[in-house]
Amino acid sequence: MTRPRTRIQKKNSETILEAALEVFSTYGFRGATLDQIAEVAGLSKPNLLYYFPSKEAMHQALLTRLLDTWLDPLRDMDPAGDPLSEILAYVRRKIELSRDFPRESRLFANEILQGAPRMRDAIEGDLKQLVDRKSAILAGWMDEGRIARLPPHHLIFSIWALTQHYADFDMQVRAVLGPDHDPFAEAGAYLETLFRKLLAV
């Protein structure tokens, strides 16, 4: 029987994962080292390995938690709701995630760019099944003439691309816009206008 973790153990685990997130999102999985993570966490390397047996275990823990966070807004799309309102709410939530969790977005992007070696099962399983279900809802709304007819999967891909860009290319966006612009405020308004026009019937 596994003993419940103490408050100190929970705190140390979170400290390690926060440090791992910082290092992985900066250097990628291949470039990150246990020594870097230990230094950022302010813990010894043996202490790190007491909580997580390997760099891979830390990375997997972060990705598992991240996937739930990333998919929750899509899960919230209500088939009984107003189609345009539901889609725009999803767009807004995705841009908020890019604003609030830029390191997590880069971690996910790095994993996908590497061919998703540690997430393939989840992507081909839970993620695909969820996207298929929500695409069926979108197709139903299109069949009813409530939103414009578009390829549903590609509509979701477009939302991902247009929102996550602001996290994955944050430095580029801010450099181009300059210091007087809030990229996320402007992006939210722009994307709402874009999708309203795209989906209008």
From TrEMBL:
<feature type="domain" description="HTH tetR-type">
    <location>
        <begin position="10"/>
        <end position="70"/>
    </location>
</feature>
<dbReference type="InterPro" id="IPR013573">
    <property type="entry name" value="Tscrpt_reg_YcdC_C"/>
</dbReference>
<dbReference type="GO" id="GO:0000976">
    <property type="term" value="F:transcription cis-regulatory region binding"/>
</dbReference>
<dbReference type="Pfam" id="PF00440">
    <property type="entry name" value="TetR_N"/>
</dbReference>
<dbReference type="Pfam" id="PF08362">
    <property type="entry name" value="TetR_C_3"/>
</dbReference>
<keyword id="KW-0238">DNA-binding</keyword>
<dbReference type="GO" id="GO:0003700">
    <property type="term" value="F:DNA-binding transcription factor activity"/>
</dbReference>
<dbReference type="InterPro" id="IPR001647">
    <property type="entry name" value="HTH_TetR"/>
</dbReference>
<dbReference type="InterPro" id="IPR009057">
    <property type="entry name" value="Homeodomain-like_sf"/>
</dbReference>
<feature type="DNA-binding region" description="H-T-H motif">
    <location>
        <begin position="33"/>
        <end position="52"/>
    </location>
</feature>
<dbReference type="GO" id="GO:0045892">
    <property type="term" value="P:negative regulation of DNA-templated transcription"/>
</dbReference>
<dbReference type="InterPro" id="IPR036271">
    <property type="entry name" value="Tet_transcr_reg_TetR-rel_C_sf"/>
</dbReference>
<protein>
    <submittedName>
        <fullName>TetR family transcriptional regulator</fullName>
    </submittedName>
</protein>
<dbReference type="InterPro" id="IPR050109">
    <property type="entry name" value="HTH-type_TetR-like_transc_reg"/>
</dbReference>
